[in-house]
Amino acid sequence: MKEIIKKILEFSDPYRALQEKVRINDNTISFNDERVYFKKPILIAVGKASIPMAEFFRQRISLKAEIVITPKGTSKGGDVIEAGHPLPDENSIKAGKKVLDLLLNEDYDLVIFAISGGASALLEYSDIPIEELKMINKLLVTSGIGIDKINIVRKHLSKIKGGKIIEYVKDRAPVISFIVSDVPGNDISSIGSGLTSIDKSTINDALMLLRKVGLENYAKYLTETPKSFSRTIINYLILDNMEVLKKLSNYLGNSLILTSEVRGEAKDVGVFMASIYNSSENYGIPLKRPYYLLLGGEPEVTIKGKTGKGGRNGEVCLSFLKYVKKSGKFELLSFATDGIDGNSDYAGCVISSNTNINEDEINDALETHNSYGLLERYESTIRTGYTYTNVNNIYVLNAP
Ligand SMILES: Nc1ncnc2c1ncn2[C@@H]1O[C@H](COP(=O)(O)OP(=O)(O)O)[C@@H](O)[C@H]1O
Ligand SMILES: O=C(O)[C@@H](CO)OP(=O)(O)O
């Protein structure tokens, strides 16, 4: 699977996607039938892909000013803010203040945003004290509710998310956002909490979710998100999970893309994938060997109490192994394109028909959310380091 991982990362590269889809010459940006003219552009790049995306614009445009915000420990040097992820920290608030200061005080005629997953935690401005914000986010991301719902809460508790940042943009300057999606279904208003998107969700939706996770005492901080804008805002999706799956399918041949929108509890996703393999073994339906089955998306892991070392992909692999029919050869790659799965420093795992882990060990690892504690003993883990992108997780099942 090494070559396949290399290809996934190549196809997930945001710089390459911008190169393919965006043209810049003579003070004009052209993309997707749009042409935007500028003299004094500024750039705000935030998310896991911010560094390569900022690099693309910096190499082609003389920017009046720029702010780049990346997760802690991932700066490659230069004037970059490193902030907390998956929980916001003091630097996320500093970044928020710096961005607002830029929007309110710089002289510009175009705002370019480069937005990717992680932006919700990395950039914040809120009346809620930071320690409480951390606690709220921790509760939300481990509650098992999907990212779209988590971000409904974040948008209404924040002073900049869910399109609110647009209120700070000066002189009717247009705004263009180039977006890399790590949200199944690519809802622009959810990716990075939809910084530059109008928002369909309401305070009431946020309130119901706050109640669901026991945080209703924060209701006083909820404010409504904009439902329309009175200036030109263009949100342009440059890369998503399906695009990577399609390129991978072309590269591999003999493959079926099932979905780029996997959701639901990670261990149930493993069971579901095993059921497809088993059915193929038993009936040749839906696939006959040799084949690659490709899926993408973002399963959730509901965590209660203390955990071991694990992640979504670790749990997909283990539950697949538990339910898969032990006949024939197979290999399953379960891979986080950002290089980090859950609280581990692994990007994911590869298991095969030769991985003999007994069922008791699997049950124990799933129960204690210690998938990587177990998988590393069977040399089934993958480490890539931080990848400077995120188009969610990719699952490749190979039945040769
Ligand atoms: N020990 C663990 N085992 C399984 N999943 C975990 C563990 N710790 C955290 N997670 C899950 O990992 C998710 C966050 O990690 P990650 O996959 O890196 O997401 P993101 O791409 O959103 O940053 C959370 O949804 C959480 O439920
Ligand atoms: O920033 C966010 O809101 C989410 C989705 O875009 O990203 P991540 O899950 O990587 O934190």
From TrEMBL:
Q: Which PANTHER family match?
A: GLYCERATE KINASE (PTHR12227)
Q: Which GO terms describe its molecular function?
A: glycerate 2-kinase activity; glycerate kinase activity
Sorted alphabetically, the Gene Ontology cellular component annotations on this record are:
cytoplasm
In this chain the MOFRL-associated domain maps to: 1-217
- What NCBIfam families does this protein map onto? GlyK_Thmprot
Q: Name one Pfam family in it.
A: MOFRL
Enzyme Commission identifier(s): 2.7.1.165
Alphabetized InterPro entries for the sequence: GK-like_C_sf (IPR037035), GK_N_sf (IPR038614), Glycerate_kinase-1 (IPR053656), MOFRL (IPR007835), MOFRL_assoc_dom (IPR025286), MOFRL_protein (IPR039760)
Specify the MOFRL domain's residue ranges. Answer: 292-393
What is the protein name for this chain?
Answer: Glycerate 2-kinase
Question: What is the top EC class of this enzyme, as a single word?
Answer: transferase
Signal peptide residue numbers:
none
Q: Which domain of life is it from?
A: Archaea
Keywords per UniProt: Transferase
SUPFAM superfamilies tied to this protein: GckA/TtuD-like
